Amino acid sequence: MEPTSQQETAHSSVLTLHVNGTPHTLTLDHRTTLLDALREQVGLTGAKKGCDHGQCGACTVLVDGRRANSCLLLAAAHNGAHVTTVEGLADGERLHPVQQAFVARDALQCGYCTPGQICSAVGMLAEAAEGHPSYVTPPEHPPGAPAALTAHEIRERMSGNLCRCGAYPNIVDAIGEVAT
Amino acid sequence: MTHPPPPLGTPAVRSEARDKVTGAARYAVEHTPPGCAYAVPVPATVARGRVTAVHAEEVLALPGVHAVLSHENAPRLKEPDDPTLAVLQNDRVPHRGWYVALVVADTPENASAAAEALRVEYAAEEHDVRLTADHPGLYTPQEANSEVPAVRERGDFDAAYPAAAVRVDATYTMSALHNHPMEPHASTAWWDDGHLTARDSSQGSTKVRDTLAQVFGLEQGQVTVVSEHVGGGFGSKGTPRPQVVLAAMAARHTGRPVKLALPRRQLAAVVGHRAPTVQRVRLGAGADGVITALAHEVVTQTSTVKEFVEQAAVPARVMYTSPHSRTSHQVVALDVPSPSWMRAPGEASGMYALESAMDELAVATGLDPVELRLRNDPDTEPDSGKPFSSRHLAECLRDGARRFGWDRRDPRPGIRREGDLLLGTGVAAATYPVLISPSAATAHAAPDGTYVIRVNATDIGTGARTVLAQIAADVLGAPLESVRVEIGSSDLPAAPLAGGSSGTASWGWSVHKACALLAERLERYDGVPAEGLTAAADTEPEVAEDSPYARHAFGAQFAEVQADTVTGEVRVRRLLGVYAAGRILNPRTARSQFIGAMAMGIGMALTEESTMDPAFGDFAEHDLASYHVPSCADVPAIEAYWIDEDDPHLNPMGSKGIGEIGIVGTAAAIANAVHHATGARLRDLPLTPDKVLPYLDPAS
Ligand code: FES
Ligand code: FES
């Protein structure tokens, strides 16, 4: 990687991203996406680039606790943000329960969608716990009450993450195991 | 003393699972060598013609641009076997999306901006991109893909068909399909003292190494290709694709390491697709449903760059009793991108048509579709007359029917309503040939009781490392944990690709042989010598032997669908497959392959299509927003089961391939279920709402 001088120009800015708890102060081209900043500047390649257009979810990370397609975010607009990538989920050697469930249920094949699936699942579990409804949540569900994560709910809420290997049935099982 | 279960046949967890769930597994462009530059290719914007000018100088003035390569200045290549790899060698544009230039810059942003800005001028010519069943350019090739004869005739179809008591004559069409693995094709390449190294997203890096050596005029020892983790391929990374040649060229031209990840929107034109087909199937049968005459005639397209003929009529040579048979392929070379392998090439398309026609024959004869297939289960392979090494299609059908609850099915179409929904069920059979290629491997025993297996296998998501370790542990009588498997580099013993559902059989046989040799040697020693002990094996002689048997895997798929009479949307409610594929070596990873391929079959049936835009001469669907890979909500809980087959005529493990058969038959089972649900026989995949809705009556 070329050394970056910490100087702003008309085309670049100096900004700080807190990635998995570690601050990174970077000089970034204004066109740089959060995904490219993570992969090419910070050196964390867990977040994948499947489409670069917000269509596949492979680049999903947690930005200030919420799941987001990092290919759609310009890094320059996220100075000071706290970003969690798949590399930041495990507690040392101890895998995050979602990671553990993916291993146990063989919820992956090629593994290229997997970091995005896992970050998305972690974000989704929090959304459901906070009572965010989905398209398939029954209208009579009390506002704000935690949503029950049936397989149907999980499929709906995880549909922003494509898996061409077709590991969906195992992904749904794995997330369902963590949700209960 | 406790006896751990024998390693082979147990559901061992895939060995790289932890690396994949923690993000530690690195793919082709996830190592950045110092001084690395970024390359972005520039696709042609005309469908046919010549490049008349490349305004490189304008782009070289932009920030950070190191180089612009085009046919004017790109390194000359020795002519590759695969003409799609002859990139930037001349001014000809054979189809839209063909690469005409490559921009190399210091950052991904500068490279993309410069590639976007590059002005290329063309002398465009009239193009012809429309496949029709009566295209004047259609011809009969010598062979279809997989080196099978394009035409086979047995008996006298023309006499037998008109004489049959019951006849079905139907034509099925399918759009082109794209593999779209989640990792786009990508390479990192660098030259060091005359040695070329590439990290490439490929299904077989030995072949990539050989190809790079050939086109750059190098010895094989001067090239290393690494494919450590590969984000799927499904055939589209089966042989080298342009990205690795371009990356190597750019690295040579600039003297820097170069990363090149193809943008998703460029893939449709340059890495292959399943060609569209027009398939006419004619079945003649007695009133008892036994087939007397069968014709499967396929019309398809290739490019002007190379001939690739989707061998869709081939499964009709294997499946059913058919004393009078004609199976043929015709192809036309159009100004379109070059087709290539996509999961179960031939079988996936062909069995959609054949198994749909079987469903129509079941309706015409009034027989249950399962029963019809049982009545046409042949004793020997119809085309060759060879006995089957094993064939348990009947058992798959019966077991699947029992698990699915098929006996409760009312055959009448269009009568099951649930509010606005119409429900139906369908069945189809599946088949896939047993393929195998020669492979080399070494097995090493260390004095500490551990073993190292080395073979250039590739893990594209099948769990190759794991199953090879299981095979080795089994032969060596060692615990699985004591075996380490090294794969994914062309510096390892040469091995064939992960493709044709042949990887595990091919690599596994060489691992088996090397381990058996090693075990034999270990017996002669009193303990392992300090430097360890190594045995090497090559399966060339074994694989060269012709088998007196017809060897295929078989399966049966059952589907339940709902069709929404208001929107026309078809959804799969249940999907169940039963397979007979030899010995299943790892039930955990095998099940994942079966259900994954069945999920892809849902896409083939309902959502996926690449349509040709006649005006621009290009596929209209360029990205994952327009090309609809099934999403999580499209895929129900899929069930996959298998019948234990004990087949001694395959390889020492007794395994058949399992990576592709799951997609074969799935689309037909779904389409047949749509007929059962709605009463409409739709013969054009995918069954999107616009096609289905006109046949549906809202709840009356
Ligand atoms: S890479 Fe971001 S959504 Fe596909
Ligand atoms: S595991 Fe390969 S794309 Fe999901």
Silhouette of chain B: globular
Structural class of chain A: alpha+beta
How much is the average pLDDT of chain A? 95
CATH fold call of the largest domain in chain A: DNA polymerase, domain 1
Taken together, the total number of domains of chain A comes to 2
Instruction: Give the CATH architecture of the largest domain in chain B.
Output: 2-Layer Sandwich
Name the strands of the widest sheet of chain A in spatial order.
2-1-5-3-4
**Which cofactor or ligand species appear?**
FE2/S2 (inorganic) cluster
Main β-sheet description of chain B: 7 strands, mixed
The rounded Rg of chain B comes to 26 Å
Beta-strand percentage range of chain A: 15-25%
User: Rough shape of chain A?
Assistant: globular
Tell me the strand percentage band of chain B: 15-25%
Number of strands of chain B: 29
